[in-house]
Every structure is written in structure tokens, then in C-alpha cells.
Amino acid sequence: MHSLRILLVVLILAAGTALAQTPAAPAATQQPPISQDVTSKPTPLPVTKSFDVSAMDTSVDPCVDFYQYACGNWMKNNPIPSDQTRWTRSFSQVQLRNQYLLWKELESAASTPKTPLEKQYGAFYASCMDTATIEKLGLEPIRGSWRQIAALKSVRGIPALLSWLENRGTPDGFFEFGVSQDEKDSSRQIAEADQGGLSLPDRDYYIVDSPHFAEIRAAYLEHMKKMFTLAGDTPEQAAKEAAWVMEIETAMAKASMARVDRRDPEKIYHIYTVDDFQKLTPEFDWKMYFSTIGIGPFDTLNVVAPDFFKGLNVLLAGEPLGAWKSYLRWQVLHGEASSLSSAFFDEDFRFFSQILGGQKVPQPRWRQCTRATDGALGEAVGQDWVKENFPPAAKASMDKLVAALEKALADDMRQLPWMSDETKKAAEEKLAMIRNKIGYPEKWRDYSSVKVRRGRFVENEQQAALYERNYNFAKLGKPVDEKEWGMTPPTVNAYYNVAFNDINFPAGILQPPFFDFTIDPAVNFGGIGVVIGHEMTHGFDDHGSHFDGQGNLREWWTPADRKAFTARTDCEADEYNGFQAAPAHGDTPAAYVNGRLTLGENTADNGGLRIAWQALLDALAEEHKSIDGKIDGFTEAQRYFIGFAQVWCENRSEAIARQLVLIDPHSPGRWRVNGAVQNFDQFGKAFGCTKGQPMFPVNSCRVW
Ligand SMILES: [Zn+2]
Fold first, then answer.
1. Ligand 1 being an ion, which residues bring their Cβ within 5 A of it?
2. How much distance in Å is there from the Cα of 50 to the middle of ligand 1?
3. Ligand 1: distance of its center to the CA of 366 in Å?
């Protein structure tokens, strides 16, 4: 299936993705009955304030724990809602607000569509809300796929079976396959095969030898048994099938590359001819697969993780036909479970959301269906959404802000004492080539080929998945479309795309508390300004710095400058390794941030805070204002830092905190704030801290 790999560096890990569903309490916890709320309707939410004194805990010394000072009261007064695993003052609340506005549009399109587009996405949304039909259909939507799997005659027939399933938009595991930009020639779009095939969020869940993971594995086996039994297996059959799936997924996990290694672009770039790839994995007939999945012809491809495919080949040679049938039955059932009738939905929720994620109850159905429709037909729904919710003036203001940040980063680069003029020149060239995309695409995608039918939710989702796959396959060998977007307009997030060398800010994030027309510049620079600086800095972090302004993997640094840069990123990695994500208790040791996994994001947070500050100084100078001038009792400098911190106020359960340190490339909110301010002396000065206090240390790290 199609994958975007790590070309996009996002601002925050989106909730509701497979990655966000991570283990919490082990299986032994009680199992309250699950009941989906299919009837409630949302109410309008107030706009989140950009600068909120009532969110602060001013009894805390900002020089000791700035995050607690800026967010303490908010954290106390905003416990995690029961249908969430974590709750963020900015992202979660704005997302809920955006979804409410989207929901209004979808409800109206579902009942009284006025345009062909409304008819299409209205029907998609209605099919998701139609739980009565979903209930009546039960397992029916996947029976055709299961019949095809049952008819598999030999392991050699797997490639043809995978293409049959994928040509119907059905999930089937095994590996990821799609079209990506060539890392070393970003003007080319080439085929790419990558590791995949796992159901749990990371390879660690299968292979780490600890009581915690052992309990999760036991619970996963139980979950699979229940699902197979619900689908009609005898308990004995179900146990056998579950054991086979576990065996195959565990072997795939062992053959997979670790997340930290995948940050090194050289380690995930291996161009093979199709013939050589065939020699690497003789047990899988690639020519049969490639010629039947609806992609054009090609001679070479990037094999992201060759060891994974070597491992897959050994597995194909060794596992019996029955094991593969079980694995495939599981991939289809698991992949569609949350869209099936309540027996399957509930058991899927119980394991993947309750046990793995610590979420108590499902989100109300209107939220699930709003998200599903945005995910399936995002640019259809989004074009009507921006008409209502994105004023043209917002785009003009953003253009100005981005220009201010670009200038500040260029000034910052010129002043770096450790970098040679030669590398500085190349860095400035790359910076000048960064393109900005703000709000929404200039040209919308055409979804007219997606067949949507009322009462057919699973088929509609499969049609949308097939559309995405074909859209991706059609890129093979074509020129790159630089105007393409990787997020839908209502998304509350932002990203840097290393192959495009561009920064992208969907309309969904361009509102309070990130961006507010009515508030003083200091708060806006601390909010959206730091976000813009963060995305630009990704072009120059431990990963992005290996790519040039054209988006090509190429060393443009002198060896001495690369060495100095690495010493600086090492400082930051070591520093963040010391930040605690969850405390020790009982036999459970404390969990710490992984400084290597989060290095790019931490570098971007630190760089963003520094260059947005410089841009603020420039903006104030233009108006002949001082950074020490006061508004409502706080200096401009203090308002900048508080505005920044309040973007990251959050509550996350301990269980989620423990697990996100394994898979989330972002640090927890506390360290996104405290880590960045303690590396920036202007913070200590703004709050009158004494050198040596925690937020104003004697030694700190600086990359940009
Ligand atoms: Zn980022």
C-alpha cells in the first residue's frame, strides 16, 4: 500500500493515527462495556484565547519551571476528556472547534445537498452515521475478501492475491509500496518499497523483552482470538490463527529497521533494479505483483529497508499456506474493524484504544464520521470549509509574518560563529529556496472517480483508499506537482516537506491561539511565529540538513562545519535524554525522552523560538517600540514567552507519556517549552532569573 514515509515533518503527532494509539495499562484492567454515542450533537465552542492569565500558575517561579508557571492552572482545570488519551490547550481545542464547523457542513450536505460535491461527501458522511445499516451488514463487507483468501492455493499465489485485494482498496499488510520523490534527484518520482505488515504501533511491542510488553503481547493474542471467534471461528481455530499471526508479525518486526535509524537518509536509500530486487526475494513474484496493481512500468525502485525484504523472503519460504491465510484474514479484519458492526468495533476499541491508548470511551459518532470524511475526501470538504472559515486577510498577514521569519533566520545564519562562510552561503541559498504554502491548495483535487453510496460505509472507505493509491501511482515518472498539499485545509498542524523544501500551514491552524488578528505582535510571534520558525528550521535539523535547496540528498557542508554541527546536535540529544517523561514508581523505572528520536523536533523548537524572537525585535523596532514595554503587567518579552508556552499546555496520561517516548519524534509539551527556553538566554533575562537557575543554566545547547 502507499506510504509517504518521513518526507513530511509535522508539528505535532496527530491524535487518532495508528501511531498515537499506544500501550497504557496492561490487560488485567477491568473491561467496562463499550457503548458508542451515536446520537449526540456538538455545540459551538468558544475561541481559545491566545494569551490567558487564568491558565497560569503564578505561584510557581518561572525561572524554576516555566511550563508549570505558564500552564499550571490550565492543567489543573482541564482533565483529559474520557474520549481522549491526551488533551492540549491549543491543538485539541482548535481541532474540536474545526470539527464542529465541518460537522455543520456535513450534516447539511447529507440532508440537503446543493452541489455534486456536497452530494458526494454528504453521502459519505451519511454512510458512516448510518449505524443501523452497518449493524445489519455485520461481517458482510469483508466476506468477499475472505473468500478470495480462502481460495489461495499456494504461497506462490500471494502476490496475485495482494494485488486483487489492493485493487479493491482492502488493507492487506505485508509491506508498504508506492511512489515517492527520489531522495537524490527530487525531480524524479520513483517506485518505493518499504517495511510494513505490523498491527501494533512499533516493532518494539513484538521484540522488547520486558514484563510490560509481554503483557501487551498476551493481551494482543487474546484480542485476536476474540475477533476471530466473533467472526465465526471455533475457539481452537481462533487460537491457532492468532498464534500464526503473532509468529508472522513478530518475524516481520525482527526484520524491521528501528525508528532512530530511519532518521538517517543514507540508510533508507537503496536503488535496486527490479531484477535485483527479485533476486533479493525469490519467494515473492514482484513482476506478477507490479504488473497487476495498476502502476505503470519501471526498471528501478528504492528499497527502503532491504533487510526487511530479506526477512520476508525467509518467512515466505518457511511458513505454511495456512499461516499466511490467517495472517491475511487478520489484516483484512483488523484493518476494517472500526468500520464494521458494534461487536467488531467494540472489541477493536477495547484493545487498540483502551488497552493500548488508555482511552476510556469512543469519540461520539459525529466526530468519528467527520474525521473519516475529512480523511477520505479532504479537499472536497475543505474547499467549502475554507470559504466559510478562512478570511483572505489571514493569508496576507501570514505572508508578511513568513517574510519576517525568513529574514530573521538569514540574519541568524550570517552571525553564527562556528560556521564557515562557504557553508553559510549554501545555507542561505537553501533558505531562499524554501517555498511557502498557506491556507489551502490553489488547485483542488478531482474526486469525481470516487464512487460513494449511502449505506455502504466500508465500500466507500475502500473506494477512497483506492483513489489515494491510484493518485499516488499516477505520479510515477511524472514531473513533481509542487502545488500539492499533504494535509487537508481544516487540519490543525503544519509541516515541512524535505523533498519539496517547502513549509505548509493549513487554514485550520491559522486562528487563535496560534494566530490572532486582535492581539499584540509579541503573542503572535510567540505562537504562529515560533511555528513558522520551527518548520523552517526543519530544513536545517539533523535530517533536513542533509538535503539541499532542491530537496536532494547531497552534502553541501564543509567537513569541518558538519563536525561542528554534529557536536551541537549531540549536545542537544544528550540534554533531552535527561528530561523525564514519566516518574518512577514501584518496580517501574522513570521514562525519559529519547534525545535521538526527538532531535529534529527539538532542534526545530529551539531554532523557532530564537528566530521568532529576532523577528519580533525587528517588528517592534519598526514601530519604535521596546521589548521591555508593558501590556497588562507583562513586558513584551514576557508576553512572547508566555504566548509560546501556552501553545503547548497539555495533559497526557502517564501511560501515554511512557509510550509516546518510544514512537513520537516530538518531546512532551513540558519539554518543548522548558527545553527551548533554557537554551535561550533571552528568556532568563526577560524574567530576571539568576544565572544557574534551572531555566537559566550556565551551560546550554544551541544549534541555530
Ligand atoms: Zn516539527
1. 9, 601, 604
2. 21
3. 30
Q: Rounded to an integer, what distance in angstroms lies between the CA atom of residue 225 and that of residue 406?
A: 55
Q: Give catalytic status of residue 202 as yes or no.
A: no
Tens-digit pLDDT profile for residues 649-688: 999 988 788 889 989 999 999 999 999 999 999 999 999 9
What is the sign of the dihedral through the CA atoms of 512, 513, 519 and 524? negative
Bond preceding residue 513 cis, omega within 30 of 0 = yes
CA atoms within 13 A on the CB side of 361: 13
Q: Which uninterrupted H or E stretch holds 316?
A: helix 306-318
User: Which helix H or strand E contains 306, and what residues bound it?
Assistant: helix 306-318
Non-local (6+) Cβ contacts of 145 within 8 A are 165, 168, 170, 332
Q: How far, rounded to the nearest angstrom, does the alpha carbon of residue 71 sit from its chain's CA centroid?
A: 24
What percentage of the chain exceeds 90 in pLDDT?
A: 88
Q: 413-430 pLDDT, tens per residue?
A: 999 999 999 999 999 999
Left if phi > 0, otherwise alpha if psi is -120 to 50, otherwise beta: which for 190? beta
The Cα 604–Cα 532 span in angstroms is 10
Q: Are 368 and 38 in contact (CB under 8 A)?
A: no
The pTM (predicted TM-score) of the whole model is 0.94
Please report the DSSP string for 378-446 in residue order: HHHHHHHHHHHH--HHHHHHHHHHHHHHHHHHHHHHHH-TTS-HHHHHHHHHHHHH-EEEEES-SS---
